[in-house]
Write a structure and sequence with these properties.
The protein is of the alpha+beta class and about 450 residues long. It has 2 domains: about 200 residues, Four Helix Bundle (Hemerythrin (Met), subunit A), CATH 1.20.120; about 140 residues, Histidine kinase-like ATPase, C-terminal domain (Heat Shock Protein 90, 2-Layer Sandwich). It is about 75% helix and about 10% strand. The chain has 11 helices and 5 strands; from the N terminus they run ααααααααβαββαββα. A 5-stranded mixed beta sheet has the order 1-2-3-5-4, covered by helices on one side. Strand 1, helix 9 and strand 2 form a beta-alpha-beta unit. Helix 3 packs antiparallel against helix 5. The radius of gyration is 59 Å and the shape is rod-shaped.
Length: about 450
């Protein structure tokens, strides 16, 4: 509906614009034609008056000096002027002048030339002193008659001009009404479309605002859920680690002691039993080592018993022992107890970073740096490996769970994880954690757990 409304408004605007241009062109053409025609009529009338005036002057001059040798010259001059007058009358007819006025003017002009042409013959019969009387009696009335006809024609032309001006004004008023109607319809339709658009836009804006609030609320719920899941995961790992250490580990240790006692029994008839018991002890020791490693990977007891620094020290040494890659732990200001959430986040981020370094970087050295300030803890893991492209799909939040998990752990505590890397230039991961925000986060997580 919006498209159709706007299209109709644009179409009406274009129609109005075309109508305005066409009307302006037609009116301009009509006005120019009227002006041209009347200017042409005035020019023809001026030339016709001049022709008649010259004819009257030529006849008067001949009467003043009726020399026989000038008779032929006068005849040729009058014939030329009469021919010019006939052409001017024909041209005046083409201008669209009233036919009645043209016919009357032709008749009067013909009578004028009929009175001028016999002057050479009349001059021979006139006595001296009668020329003036002849002019007043014969030529002056004819000249006045032609002048009256020209004046009547001019008056008729003026009335015709006034009629054409009135027609022009009526045509302009009609065009103005059409233009105003088109513009009015366009304006009304534009107001309707604008009102509908504003109403629809307001509705869409309200829907977008509600959806944004819903998405924000859902994002907050997901973030709290993610934090809660991470906390539950850590609790499960802690419980599993303790179970392995306290139950399975102690049972295997007891088994080892019992096997050692059986093995220490003297007797020459039990060599085979001692051999099997030795193998069983070795197996028990291997199982104990495996259980201990699993417990350390799930939740190192050092992290809960001694704190973050011993746990990271053991993690880096274990990494160096397993991979052969030089790994260094640097601490600055790491004094004082940290909240459990902060210790767990830093430990898991460093653990995941070392795992990625072992699996993908092909580095020769790795440095883990922990810098603790009164309100901020900064953990940096950098290596000189092959690096990676930050714009590639492998590091987007939807690509791998490792980086995503690290980001979620940092975000759950109000921190952030920055990654700097380029192909062939190593990698640098920096974890920023605000220590002042950890206590509210823990309180919120505890409240959700209670709910």
């Amino acid at each position: 509906m919006l498209r159709a409304g706007f299209a109709l408004v644009i179409a009406l605007s274009l129609v109005a614009a075309v109508e305005v241009l066409q009307t302006q062109r037609d009116l301009s053409t009509q006005a120019a034609e009227i002006c041209r025609r009347h200017i042409q009529q005035d020019d023809i009338l001026f030339r016709l008056r001049r022709t008649l005036w010259l004819g009257a002057i030529a006849g008067r001059d001949f009467l003043l000096d009726p020399h026989p040798e000038r008779k032929a010259t006068l005849g040729a001059q009058l014939a030329s002027l009469e021919s010019d007058g006939a052409k001017l009358l024909d041209a005046l007819t083409l201008t669209g002048a009233p036919a009645r006025s043209i016919q009357e003017l032709r008749s009067r002009v013909k009578e004028f030339w009929e009175g001028i042409e016999p002057i050479p013959l009349v001059a021979q019969r006139l006595k001296p002193g009668e020329e003036y009387d002849f002019v007043q009696r014969d030529l002056v009335p004819r000249r006045n008659s032609v002048s009256d006809a020209l004046w009547d024609f001019t008056r008729d032309s003026q009335r015709a001009l006034e009629d054409e001006e009135q027609q022009f004004a009526r045509a302009r008023q009609s065009a103005d009404r059409r233009i105003f109607f088109t513009l009015g319809v366009s304006l009304i339709l534009g107001v309707v479309v604008a009102g509908f658009s504003l109403r629809r836009s307001g509705t869409l804006e309200e829907q977008a605002a509600r959806q944004y609030e819903e998405v924000s609320a859902a994002k907050g719920d997901l973030r709290r859920l993610s934090a809660r899941l991470i906390e539950i995961q850590e609790q499960e790992r802690t419980r599993l680690s303790r179970d392995l250490h306290d139950r399975v580990g102690q049972a295997l240790a007891t088994l080892r002691l019992e096997l050692a006692r059986v093995e220490s029994i003297p007797g020459r008839r039990l060599p085979e039993m001692r051999q099997r018991l030795g193998e069983a002890r070795a197996l028990a020791e291997d199982v104990i080592g495996t259980v201990r490693n699993i417990a350390l990977l799930l939740r190192p007891a050092l992290l809960d018993d001694l704190g973050l620094q011993p746990a990271l020290q053991w993690l880096t040494e274990d990494f160096r022992r397993r991979t052969g890659i030089a790994c260094e732990l640097v601490e600055q200001g790491a004094a004082g107890a940290l909240p459990d959430a902060v210790r767990t986040c830093v430990y898991r981020v460093v653990q995941e970073a070392l795992h990625n370094c072992e699996k993908h970087s092909a580095a020769q050295w790795v440095r883990v740096s922990i810098v603790q300030a009164p309100e901020t803890l900064l953990a940096t893991i950098e290596d000189n490996g092959g690096g990676f492209d930050l714009k590639s799909a492998s590091v987007t939040p939807h690509a791998g769970l490792g980086i995503l998990g690290m980001r979620e752990r940092a975000a759950a505590l109000g921190g952030r994880l920055d990654i700097q890397s380029a192909p062939g230039q190593g990698s640098r991961l920096t974890l920023h954690l605000p220590l002042a925000a950890t206590q509210p986060a823990r309180a919120a997580a505890a409240a959700e757990a209670n709910v």
